[in-house]
Amino acid sequence: MNVEILTRWTAPLVCALFLTGCGPDEKSAAPAPAKAITLWVAPNENEEAFWNNMVTEWNRDPAHTPVVFSPIPAAGSSEEAIMNALASGTEPDISSNIFTGFASQLGELGQVEDLATLPGFAALVTSRAMENILPAWKINGQQTVLPLYINPVVWWWRGDLLRQYGYESPPKTYDELYRLAERRAADKGGYTIQMTYGKNWWERWFDLIPLFYAAGEGKPYIENNQARFDNPTGKAVVTFMATVFHNKWSSYDFTSADDPLASGQVLASTRGPWDIARYRTQYPDVLKHILIGPMLTQQGKAHPYTFGDSKGVVIFKSSPHKEEAWAFIQWVYGNVQHDLSWLELTGMPPARGDLLNNPVFVDYFTKNPLEKAIASYVDVALPPAVTTKTSDVQRSMTQMLEQVIFKKSTPEEAVNLSAADVNAILKP
């Protein structure tokens, strides 16, 4: 491994900040037996509980090569910790908590296995009904990361407040949103929608990019190292967002300490399944009024594409236990009861295409209708663009939005400028 190359990759890394997969952890790895599979997992309590159950059950069988797991070591981000480990030769055999952008970096460095070449891969995909999910996870023709969970980003609407304006179900089109906003403004009830999630680059995953996916029928916004959002569809999305801000139907100044949806400052905000547990604890009276709605589009699609906050598992090429590591992954992924356990412990939908028609999940979703409504979008929830320059690309997108919000550029000008900037960033 070229340490200089890895150092160059590691230096600019910042936390990908998927809400379910980052943050420091002070636990250190347990010493591994002489022959053991080492596994790193996302440093959060619920995921660690799941992997503890899996590893304990797996290790009960003396025929299995033992697995030793630990949270990804504390660092500025999970990605930085893994890059540091690769540079020092202390990487595990398997790691979870890998998103497509980081997988692109690992693949470019030749550090991860193409799982599609391993025996039983096709059967595993079929058993999990993943045929329509995996194409978006293919990186340079290879399947180097196997998705573990997919968290669709959807609109959460305050049903109790919507009814005050004559709406029994959430708006689906831009025009419907405009009409609702005009009614809201007329009675000085507050803002209508939280149009942007925040000002950080990673927050484009929860506002602009889902709208791009929805408007563009799931087409990528970055493809073949080129921006693909400088088209009529992309410009329509940015024009929609500009219209909302220019009419003061939203604010760009909500802070991370605010929850404008819970307080009633807005009627809608994008959320993921991780917010359900938080609302059950902090805002139970609000949660009972929440309605789940699709990404807004010009035409009003019933089941539009959206962004999926999602991560997966990789096997490192340096592993001396590739065969055993793959056997463990197949064992975990190949049992639908394990996916039910994952869902119950984490609340995050496993990356399966049969969540709503597999009888194993019926009881869970009957008891948890909000989770079911969100999980219904798993099949159209796409991961981030396959690029090694994720943060740079999305910083440009953030600047594009700010140019429009503060009326320094027209939507068309801002989109064209950002696309040119992104193309320069992605230039080999």
Write up this protein.
By secondary structure, the chain is α/β, with parallel strands linked by helices. It contains 18 helices and 11 strands. Strands 1, 2, 3, 4, 10 and 11 form a 6-stranded mixed sheet that branches. β6 and β7 form a beta hairpin. α1 (3-10) runs antiparallel to α3 and α8 packs across α9. The longest helix has 16 residues, at 390-405. It is globular and about 70 Å long. The model is unreliable at 1-30 (pLDDT under 50).
Summarize the entry for a quick read.
With 428 residues, the protein is an alpha/beta fold. Helices cover 41% and strands 12% of the residues. The longest helix is centred in the last third of the chain and has 16 residues, at 390-405.
